[in-house]
User: Which sequence fits this backbone?
């Protein structure tokens, strides 16, 4: 956007449209007022001009920059009541709830959670935590105590020899209100909330006066941190000649305090009346002070480097808090919030900078030409740096519409993976770097930089997790998992990588328990006389692997709990319904062997091919060779596909009633035609409660196909 850099600002600004709106509201009819209220409920501004909400700011320079330089339309409706704005400037803190309701194209000039820097007690507490870990790196602020919580430690400072001077500030005040110096603990109420600091008694003086620097720092991203330092600032001078503090001058605020609000009422205060003469008066430009120090052969470059390092380390201490409060998780550009902070820096006689405090709403009053010039350009460059314009807004809205259309067409919201989000962040960051490098004005990017601050950020994250209890919950969960007792079978569980190994191990284990001796000749004669009893003899180890799912069989860990045959049978008793069903099937089969000639002929024809196979392969071979059954796997709905009865091997007997009532009821509810549905097989260990005379029980785990068993059961085989 085209900027008018030389547009003068005399400190006063009145928006004529604001008065016109008030007059028009009085003259409008009720219907027109209802229509206006409906328009105000719109979330997105459809006009060609951006709307800047200034309902919560008192500074005319903010309105002047928005209206006269950027041609924004100013809105005076409270931004919490009406979301129809594109850019909001407020003098107060912003809550996370406000940020969560914002649209992707909207911008606001505060970060939620900035109290961690702006409040004196929070700032001191966060810096003290970091100083315990890094005492040498975090020595850029005076030693600080939070009262009354640290009253005992602070009281001990008055009992150690030479008297010391402390400066005491209310924990939530500004403009020098309530600040006093003391050398006695009796002057402090132990019940009041204060922030006490060691007084720096050897400050750097110019013209015999104590001064500090108001440096403007802009944070425009918290995840990751993105920090800019404005090249111009203010130097605020005291109005009384400085002398070391003692009991007679502790009450002289105009000597020890440099706040503009305190010194401007002193008769000695000299105002700056010409913006071109920035080195005159008790409020000067920061660059004029640096130029003066250079003439005194002071190392200003090292001073600026130390100040930048100080600023970055301060933000590192609170970065986890800012990140936690930044609730816009899909803002990959990391640019919905920005904030201009006022860092108050005091320089001692050795040219070492000290951080006094941080202001989240620095004063933008413009009662002098110097203030008007610096603060107008500061706000102008900040808006330009944040890329707040119509083109950027339209691009973001169009991207959002494309995402919504894609969601409507697909019927679901696309969930991006961590890698995809990382790529989007990197792409957005690259585009932002390219823009800001060309439009940063008088701002200087100080972080990210060549120096690494990851160590401080990681420790700050650890401190934040300890403070919120995140580490405690994580450690408790880890300890709970570690203390859980391991199953007894875990120590004996064999490592089986393939399903075939599982079957082999189970069969070899059962064979060892059930068949410790070789078969006799009598058994072989019985086998020759009764070929249909082939399935009941001790099978050979399974040589092939059936194509089954991992959960289609009972794992070996259930069998391995005991070594004896008795315990193995006890395990089989847990599956009484299945065992009773198979028991009945085998009994009926032996009883009606002679009556069912058709089934006997089929079994005799397949005796040679099946005699050397295990029960698993016997069932599988019948299915593969005859190819007269079709199976359909339906894991989602378990619906059974129907096939013609001619394709089935056995024909049902509709008049046959199962002897077990519970199975009869379940069979009557099913469709009375055969189907080829494949039901998950199970492994059983059989035990006949009352075996018939001369009947030999097969003692191996049987892999049973349920529909095949049902057919045999209904046939009465």
Assistant:
């Amino acid at each position: 956007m085209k900027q008018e850099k030389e547009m003068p600002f005399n400190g006063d600004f009145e928006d004529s449209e604001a008065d016109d709106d008030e007059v028009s509201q009085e003259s409008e009819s009720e219907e027109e007022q209802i229509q206006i209220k409906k328009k105000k409920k719109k979330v997105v501004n459809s006009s060609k001009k951006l709307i800047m909400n200034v309902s919560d700011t008192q500074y005319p320079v903010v309105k002047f920059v928005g209206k006269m330089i950027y041609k924004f339309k100013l809105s005076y409706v409270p931004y919490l009541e009406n979301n129809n704005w594109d850019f909001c400037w407020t003098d107060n803190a912003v809550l996370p709830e406000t940020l969560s309701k914002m649209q992707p194209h909207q911008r606001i000039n505060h970060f939620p959670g900035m109290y961690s820097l702006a409040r004196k007690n929070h700032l001191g507490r966060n810096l003290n935590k970091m100083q315990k870990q890094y005492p040498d790196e975090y020595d850029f602020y005076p030693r600080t105590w939070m009262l009354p919580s640290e009253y005992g430690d602070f009281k001990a400072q008055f009992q150690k020899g030479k008297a010391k001077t402390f400066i005491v500030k209310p924990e939530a005040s500004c403009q020098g209100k309530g600040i006093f110096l003391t050398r006695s603990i009796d002057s402090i109420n132990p019940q009041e909330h204060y922030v006490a600091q060691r007084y720096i008694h050897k400050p750097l003086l110019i013209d015999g006066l104590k001064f500090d620097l108001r440096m403007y720092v802009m944070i425009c991203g918290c995840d990751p941190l993105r920090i800019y330092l404005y090249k111009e600032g203010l130097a605020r001078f005291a109005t009384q000649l400085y002398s070391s503090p003692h009991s007679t001058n502790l009450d002289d605020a105009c000597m020890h305090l440099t706040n503009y609000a305190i010194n401007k009422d002193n008769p000695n205060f000299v105002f700056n009346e010409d913006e071109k003469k920035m080195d005159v008066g008790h409020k000067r430009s920061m660059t004029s002070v640096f130029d003066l120090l250079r003439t005194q052969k002071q190392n200003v470059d090292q001073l600026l480097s130390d100040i930048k390092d100080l600023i970055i380390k301060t933000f590192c201490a609170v970065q986890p808090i800012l990140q936690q409060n930044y609730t816009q998780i899909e803002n990959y550009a990391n640019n919905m919030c920005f904030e201009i902070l006022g860092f108050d820096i005091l320089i001692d006689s050795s040219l070492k900078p000290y951080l006094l405090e941080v202001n989240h709403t620095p004063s933008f009053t413009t009662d002098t030409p110097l203030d008007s010039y610096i603060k107008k350009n500061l706000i102008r460059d900040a808006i330009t740096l944040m890329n707040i314009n119509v083109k950027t807004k339209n691009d973001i809205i169009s991207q959002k519409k494309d995402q919504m259309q894609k969601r409507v067409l697909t019927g679901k919201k696309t969930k991006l993976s961590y890698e995809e989000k990382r790529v989007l962040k990197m792409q957005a960051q690259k585009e932002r770097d390219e823009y800001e490098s060309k439009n940063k004005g008088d701002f200087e990017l100080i972080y990210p930089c060549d120096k690494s601050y990851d160590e401080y950020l990681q420790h700050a994250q650890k401190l934040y997790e300890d403070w919120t209890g995140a580490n405690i919950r994580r450690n408790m969960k880890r300890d709970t998992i570690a203390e859980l007792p391991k199953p007894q079978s875990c120590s004996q569980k064999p490592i089986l990588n393939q399903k075939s190994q599982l079957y082999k191990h189970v069969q070899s284990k059962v064979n060892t328990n059930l068949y410790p001796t070789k078969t006799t000749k009598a058994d072989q004669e019985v086998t020759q006389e009764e070929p249909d009893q082939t399935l009941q003899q001790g099978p050979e180890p399974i040589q092939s692997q059936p194509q089954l799912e991992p959960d289609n069989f009972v794992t070996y860990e259930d069998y391995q709990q005991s070594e004896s045959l008795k315990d193995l049978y006890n395990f089989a008793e847990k599956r009484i319904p299945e065992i009773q069903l198979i028991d009945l099937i085998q009994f009926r089969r032996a009883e009606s062997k002679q009556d069912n000639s058709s089934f006997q002929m089929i079994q005799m024809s397949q005796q040679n091919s099946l005699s050397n196979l295990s029960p698993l392969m016997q069932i599988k071979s019948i299915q593969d060779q005859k190819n007269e059954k079709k199976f359909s796997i339906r894991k989602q709905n378990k619906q059974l596909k129907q096939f013609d009865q001619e394709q089935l091997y056995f024909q049902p007997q509709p008049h046959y009633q199962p002897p077990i009532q519970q199975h009869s009821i379940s069979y009557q509810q099913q469709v009375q035609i055969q189907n080829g549905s494949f039901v998950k097989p199970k492994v059983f260990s059989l035990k006949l409660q009352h075996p018939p005379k001369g009947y030999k029980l097969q003692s191996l785990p049987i892999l049973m196909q349920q529909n095949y068993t049902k057919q045999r059961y209904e046939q009465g085989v």
